[in-house]
What does this fold into?
Amino acid sequence: MMLARLKSWEGLLLIILIITVLANAALAPQFLTLQNQINLFQLSIEKIIVALAMTLIIINAEIDLSVASIMGLAACTFGILVESGTPAGLAIILCLMLGIVAGAFNAFWIAYVQIPSLVVTLAMLIMYRGIARVLLEDRGITGFPQWFGDLGQKAFLGPFPLGMIIFVVLLVVLGLVLHRTGFGREVFVIGTNAEVARFSGVRVARVKTILFIISGVISALAGLLYAGRLASVRGDAATGFELDIITMVLLGGVSIFGGRGTIIGVLFSILIVLNLRNGMALVNVTGHIQTAVIGILLIMSVLGPNLAERMRSTGLAKASA
Amino acid sequence: MIQFFRRLHPQSLRILALAIVLLLTVLFFASQIDGYFSPRMLNRIATSVAVILPIAIGQAMVVMTRNIDLSVGSVVGIAAYLIGDYLGTHPDVHPVMVVVIALALGAFCGAINGALVAYGRVPSIIVTLGTLALFRTYLVEYSGARSITTAGLPQWLVDLPQATVFSIGNFDMRLTVAMSLVAAIIFWVALSRLRVARKLYAVGSNPDAAVVAGINSSLVVFMSFVLSGMLAGLAGFMFLAKFGNITVVAGLGFELKSVAAVVVGGVNIFGGSGSILGVVLGTVLVDTIDNSLTRWAIVSEFWREALLGMLIMIAVATDTFMTRSFGRMKGKSE
It folds into this structure.
């Protein structure tokens, strides 16, 4: 079933991915070494972890714009707690609980009051970021325990850092949940048609609540990894990450209208984005142009298939828009 | 009283609810801040609204057609920077011509978005997420890390923010505020009275029905993006006039602010309904909160964003509850 799907969107992504990797390998001989590949992941590890949760949210026909603010809020809360003498272990647990609360608060408005998620999470993007600023004002906090910084930076299991292990575990777990369980089917059904789902006995509000809580707690976790990797936090930590994260998910073939998408597609898109950025850095293309290229790729990834479809349908009966 | 509410259209109820929230907000801050009703405070809020209002109106039209324009902040940046740059080498261009150039620049950016959405059939959130990055990148590359300073601008533009059309008592009606208000009135009248503009609502409330009714819905969507870009260009001009010093980050984050103003203003995020009057009230509400919080002695300036986010949520929730309960009241009486 997975292989049958590969011929379409994921197939296209795979081809782009192979081209990118080959181009990179041709440009720099050391590109294909394990260490370079790990470094590649480490540079954007927080974003790609959150992208996995975002995949489920968008397939559910919702959106969570507040993820980067939750990341920043969790990182700042951790900084404040550690600074005031809380053991770092306890602080980590408290921050993850904060992520759950933030996600549940989003879910309350979206699932029960039924205000569109675009509106709710936009307001929360501003509010959670605001709380982070209130906590830290304009200073930064450093001086975390050595082991916390090591978790963010050093190899944890074999050559792999903790962030990468979390990414792979989440990839497998969320992939299985989405494509192999009843809950995953419900996520797709709601994304396709929430009304139909409700009349079929799917507890729509409950599913949405679970998804936003997952998104909240994963964002908080990613925020902690970010704090560990940089060994410091500021009020503006992770600002603007939401757009990069959503770009990765949409490029992975997940429909913004919900009901369509695969974890594999998103994995390919993540790998393409990481490799493209690396390749462009190798040929001295700066960060801003890198972002632009990914922006073009995002638009082309939808425009291309649309135009091809249009050309194919010319001559056939006129399609209804 | 209940009779009165029953006779009102749901859209009018939204406006009424919004006006009440705005009034309560103003009264609250007036009780907290000394000399709140001063001309200075009024001017501060008015000139700030003047920049964001055109963007919010453009955003509203795009949202009405079931789309979203996330690139407006970058368009504001491009317009502000490029005009500033152009004036540095061509200081003698007529002011009206400068505004026309700003509108044209914005319209061009909007046309790119519109063509991709309406004719390329790419979802607007994807297109404008992409052009948000693209337009900004173009600006960063073009600028080469230079910034525009007031020193390079002609004197009329530097004086523009102080230019006053007329004064009522101590309150001066600034020219930029007047320009924004005129734009708002034009679009308000057009959207509520003109046949051609009603197509925005038709396409937004039911795209299939609109096509069946003979409306060229692609053209309508395309035009909404062109207008949104054009108004963002106008806002870019206002931005340049207001601040004078322009860096490549000009207009950053305006996309979220404009969407906030639009949804607080009661435009349905799923398209098909909303009014410019609501958008004006929404913009004024969001900006009043923003500007008043910086003056509020009890909270430090770092509280601004946290409270703003919370207040947007409260405004939207209040609006939702009020509209729903009025709707229910209406339903029962029929």
